[in-house]
Write a structure and sequence with these properties.
Blueprint (H helix, E strand, L loop, with lengths): L1 H25 L29 E6 L2 E6 L3 E4 L10 E2 L15 E8 L2 H13 L12 E9 L4 E10 L2 E7 L9 E5 L2
């Protein structure tokens, strides 16, 4: 008799637990904090402007959009062949900012003039960013980006040749640990 009672109590417990689970499933669910890469938001950036599009492209992940190397290009942190650099749309986000996914609302590119390039070189030096010496011509292309939450940052691409491009992200500060090298795969 006690075995039969134990079985009835166990069945009642399972039934009650099942009702609680079903009730929870029926409750309104919050949207998952992910980007739907198959159907991105209408105001999300769709492409990277030239000439930066030669070596960078947009990639969508569930956490948000990121800039990654274009086909036939490699991005490397100095002294590392295992860590792969990328530039996320949430790069400038403080930890206290919303956890919702980020995407690029705007991306613009322009070439720095001579005076601005000189000011950027001074900014890099004051941030302890020491690019390898270079004797030839170089241009600096500035990518300005803004996320869907209004966060802004820049990536400065110091272009020397297709085999020698240095990326200096500034969000808003330029940090030496974020510096990476870009080159065309041959």
């Amino acid at each position: 008799m006690s075995g039969h009672l134990a079985a009835l109590l166990l069945a009642a417990a399972w039934y009650t637990a099942g009702i609680a689970v079903w009730a929870d499933e029926a409750a309104p669910q919050e949207a998952a904090p992910f980007v739907d890469c198959d159907h991105p938001p209408t105001h999300a950036a769709r492409a990277v402007p030239e000439p930066i599009a030669r070596w960078a492209q947009l990639e969508c992940t569930p956490a948000g959009q990121i800039l990654v190397p274009s086909e036939d290009w490699a991005w490397r942190f100095p002294g590392s062949f295992t860590d792969r650099p990328f530039v996320p749309a949430w790069m400038s986000a403080a930890e206290s900012v919303s956890a919702e996914p980020r995407f690029f609302r705007s991306i613009a590119a322009r070439q720095a003039g001579a005076e601005e390039a000189q000011l950027l070189a001074q900014r890099f030096a004051s941030s302890n960013i020491n690019l390898p010496p270079h004797a030839g011509q170089q241009q600096i292309y500035i990518l300005s980006a803004e996320s869907n939450l209004g966060e802004k940052f820049e990536v400065n691409f110091v272009y020397r040749s297709d085999q020698d491009i240095w990326a200096v992200p500034c969000a808003p500060d330029c940090l030496s640990e974020q510096l990476f090298h870009i080159y065309r795969r041959e």
